[in-house]
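pinned: reference chain
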Amino acid sequence: MKKSESGRSLVEILLVVAILGSGVVTAVPALRAYGVESHIVGAGKIFKEEFWKARSTAVRLGVQTAIRFGGVRAADIRAGIDRRVAGPFPLFGHAPGVRIGINPNGPAIPPATGTLEDEDPIRFGTSDMLSFSPLGTCTPGTFYIAGEGVQAAVRVTAGTSRVRMLLNRGKRWVER
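pinned: its C-alpha cells
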C-alpha cells in the first residue's frame, strides 16, 4: 500500500510567495498616494472650517472679520486696531507631507484653462487676507494645499461666500 504525500513542494511555496510579493510591491505606491491624499483632505477640511467660522463670526456679531495669512501685526493687536479671535495656526494643517503650495504644471481649476502659476498659493484679491462682512459676503479667492502628486484648493466665492474644497487627481478637479 502506497502512502499519499501531503504538503507543498518548495516550488509551489516560492511561487505563492512571489505572487504575494508582487501584489505588495504593486499596492505600496497606491497606499502611499491614498495616505497623502487623506492628509491633504484633512488639512483642507480644517481650513474650510476656519473659513466658515470666520464668516459665521462676522454675521453673528455684525463686524468685519478676516483671516490674515502671514499674521496680524502685534502692534495692531496691542493698539486695539485688530482683535485676535483665534490662532495663530500652523499653515500645514498638522499633516505630514502637506504644504501650502502649488505643484508644478498642475491644471488650472475650470473654467480657467492652462496650468496653475506656482508663485502664490494664497490668492484672496490683491492680498493674503480672506475678509468677511457683517452681511456674509467676502473677498473671493483660493487657498492651495499640495502634497506629493496631489493638489487641493479651498475656494471661497464672492457674494454667497460659499466655501468649497477641490481635489486634483491627475488632470481632473473633483469637489470634496
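why pinned: The chain has a mean pLDDT of 80. Helices lie at 10-61, 74-78.
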